[in-house]
Amino acid sequence: MTAVPQTEPCRWGIVGGGMLGLALAARLAARGQQVTVLEGAPEIGGLAGAWQLGDVIWDRHYHVTLLSDTRLRSLLADLGLENQMRWVETRTGFYTDGRLYSMSNTLEFLRFPPLGLIDKLRLGATIFAASRIKDWRPLERVLVADWLRKWSGSRTFKKIWQPLLKAKLGECYRKTSAEFIWATIQRMYAARHSGLKKEMFGYVPGGYARVLERFAEELHTAGVELRTNCRVSSVVAQPDGQVLVDTNRGSRWFDRVVLTAPSPVIAQLCPQLGEEERRQHENIEYLGIVCASVLLKRPLATYYVTNITDAGLPFTAVIEMTTLVDPAELNDNHLVYLPRYAAADDEAWNWSDHEVQEQFLSALERMYSEFRRDDVKAFRVSRAKHVMALPTLRYSEKLPPLATSAANVFAVNSAHIVNGTLNVNEVLQLADDAFDRVLVPALGPLSSEGRGWVREGSVDSIVSHPARTDDLNPSPSPSLQGRGIAAEPAPTP
Asked: CB within 8 A of 362, min separation 6: which ones?
């Protein structure tokens, strides 16, 4: 049998070094391709990165691993970190009618004062019904508010569902499909294990800073070039089949380019998109986040997440990370995240850091009688306008293609997650699907069997940390000195 002639591997450029871009880079490197990741920020990881908060370094946004996150756990196993994970049973709280309530088990649910027995039964039936639905597509044709009113009733919708939807989506909930709540409930059920329905969340000691550092080391070993501080300004396919990528540090030629940036950014970077394709990217609506990280001397309560149903509070939930993470990891401090999911026209985008701090701390004083401002050791604000693509009616039918109309240019981003919530595990699944569907056919003959460390069929993902990657590349080309990467969001499990 005659052997098929081998050719040189393709040169791939990945625009964006968040979880998706790095996962794709690992899969390509495992197939013997030459891969360069370009990121505009000073470090890889994007919105999944870590930062300095007071005297500690931890995740910029809140992330956990679920027992059901098999894709992410596969990556952690590849990195030698999965067996070091710590698993913790967490509790859930509600702030309703000016009081904190625990909602961590069936008995507490039945005792929940704001709802009557019939309301609770209907609420439980709604969640159970959503958990049993397998085909999510019909839910894309129904508004989430209409679906929840039908199943839970108007009182339960007004008292529970509407405040939660507004907290997560703002007024955009009015045009969101029922697929959103289905995906949320599916993930909630996936977080439960055993007949006791306990929620077990996990984390890697050292946080995603450690995960990203290990991942970057393995990518470097596999030959992937990680370039930070490299902001891409245009991606143009050439008549000879190559793709020219212009950046603030000069130009670079590739055989194939994958864009992982948000859709509005892709529409700006790629002038050769067709009219319909450009419209599809531009019409995707995104929610952003204004998220405060607060380092405290003592805890607020005992709940990992406190859902807020009362109006008038400036953030949408309270995430007490140190109910999950050992405070010893944070120099015996306590870490709280205060997220506000915000549409493009939300007034919060105009707030200064000082205004955010004043409003958020005032709200904590209102919620927690024991809280004192002297407890605050550090307060830092993160803002990101393109976090989650809003799942509007018939959303999956309106998505732009993965293979663009520009030759050898692909557009793969988190907007292509159509039947799940935005989290690391789903992003890894997207990376696998996109790799198999559109990138493998574009590989061409391989020059080797691959030199990567990722097992074929396993998942490569990360969440991040301010690990500088220029230092991982001892001989960068002068035109690309200090290249960068893009990002990803901070979902609630």
From this structure: none
Q: What domains can be seen in the chain, in order of their start residue?
A: 11-85+205-283+392-480 (3.50.50.60), 106-196 (no CATH), 286-389 (3.90.660.20)
pLDDT of residue 473: 31
Whole-prediction pTM = 0.85
H or E element that contains 58: strand 56-59
Where b means 16+ CB within 10 Å and e means fewer, 360-376 reads bbebbeebbeebeeebb
Q: Alpha carbon 247 to chain centroid distance? A: 25
pLDDT interval class at 477 (50, 70, 90): very low
The strand ranges marked E within 238-333 are 243-247, 250-254, 256-259, 286-296, 305-308, 317-320
Higher pLDDT, 422 or 473: 422
Instruction: Convert the pLDDT of each residue in 249-261 to its tens digit.
Output: 999 999 999 999 9
Neighbours of 409 (CB within 10 A): 25
CB 411, CB 400: distance < 8 Å: yes
